[in-house]
Amino acid sequence: MGEIRLLLELAGEAALLLWGLHMVQSGVQRAFGSRLRQALGIALQSRPRALLVGLGVTAALQSSTATALMVTSFAAAGAVALVPALAAMLGANLGTALIVQLLSFEPHALAPALVLAGVVAFHRGSRSRTRDLGRVAIGLGLMLIALRLLSVTMAPVETSPTLRAVLAALADHPLPNLLLAAGIAWAAHSSIAGVLFVASLAGAGAVGPQAALAMVLGANLGSAINPLLAAGGDARDRARLRLPVGNLLNRLLGALLALALLPQAAALLHALDPVPARLVANAHLAFNLATGLLALPLLPALARLLQRALPERPPDEEEGRPRYLDEAALRTPAVALANAARETLRIADAVEAMLKGSAAAFRGEDREVAKEVSRTDDVVDRLHRAVHAYLARIPRESLGDEDGRRLQEIQTFAIAMEHAADVVERDLVRHAAKRLRRGLALGAGEMREIEALHAALREQLRLAVAVFMLEDAEAARRLVRGKEALRAAEREAARRLGGSGGATASLMLDTVRDLRRVGAHFASAAHPLLERRGELLPSRLAAEAELMEAERAPDGEEAARPAVSPGPRAP
Questions:
Q1: Domain boundaries, the chain
Q2: Contact in structure between 34 and 334 (CB atoms under 8 Å)
Q3: Crossing angle, helix 47-61 and helix 64-76, to 10 degrees?
Q4: Where are the beta strands (DSSP E) in 369-501?
Q5: Is the pTM of this model over 0.85?
Q6: At a CB cut-off of 8 Å and minimum separation 6, what does 173 contact?
Q7: Mind listing the pLDDT tens digit for each residue in 434-470?
């Protein structure tokens, strides 16, 4: 009966530890989720920087699994190369080791103060971020309390004949110890929880140094399984598995090497610090540090192997089928938003293809191009509906202010792309077909103008994507300024129509006007960012509005118009 009570207490205290981890992770994601995602996306460009940022994001989220899900979504989407993504996972693994190091010094005295400060911030905070940080403080306090309770509960283990017999039977068999800890870490979705549980066992004298080291290896392997299962999804999309498989391979090879050197490693770590809990923390740090140093130079070769073993998905017969809207990621809002953003980029890719088709239609190269543009518009419509349905399933109560704002940005960008696609399909391609049907001949200058405007719109679309994904302020300014250039082209087309009144001039005016409408939809991606930065007034860019005010005459009459354009007006 005593053993059953002991197991129940251990289960409850482990659950308290996991709940504390969950509160820390959810609080950080709600407070800084979009910034962490953005920093991670920008940093995944080189191996050393990706490793450091993976470490930092994991330290903030208290979970390498959450970091792995984010990085996997970027890599599966093709937003980053596989090599820096693998480097980020090495950094994430090292980040968990540093967290365990901090917790192994037993800062239990801080627990009441952290819980008190968190409760005050949660109930008294006037801003949502303050309340989210209060949630983080409460979670940290609960983790420390749980660790203290675990150490107290594990103390009588030495007097429990049944548990001592089980652990003694496993003591000389590293593989069962490894598998046991792997199962615990997998169930907890956290190597931190698994390693801290091992530290509690070691601190109570329930396991020896070699058994504890084998369990540390198992905790590292177990937590690498969760991202692999989460990335499973469509069996045809094996490329999604590259990053989690690569991370699991790195840990598995490191574990095999460590098992071969287990007696020597146990003796070395015991000599370094014989305190059992510190020995476990040092083993966790040493394993991930050694794995990172050994694997970092080999990542390009590993990436090539993964790309050959897990090739890209063959082209879908149904292009409008979503690829990145993983249902399992809905439990992690930051990952779900990253998935929705990547699917929205597919809409932008389709719109770019439609613009190329529109330009080809005006050149008269292929009379079937109108059907292709119409088919692509159907793809845009299906993806647009899928993205909005996916976003609607993200629990709103799990979103902080920044994640809520990001969700609205994704919805707005998807709507803008869908509207732009409608203009291309319903109007621009129709104008091209009308020209061919009526035999209207456009001059070389007019064709060059249409080609130039289509090329400018494709550049505008790329700027809109940069604003959408990276919040690039300079790209946002160029987007808004580019809209004025399209207005100028529309005014010039209207002037030509007034001068000639011919059918060709009318066609040009309609075409340029619809091209300008497409550009306005692209430019709408810049407005939220510029408004937050205070650079966009209700009527014009703030800096350029000040320039116009400065050039007004003292008597209130407007001075001579400046040589530069006064800037675009917001719609």
A1: 2-309, 330-550
A2: yes
A3: 130
A4: none
A5: no
A6: none
A7: 777 776 667 777 788 888 888 999 999 999 998 888 7
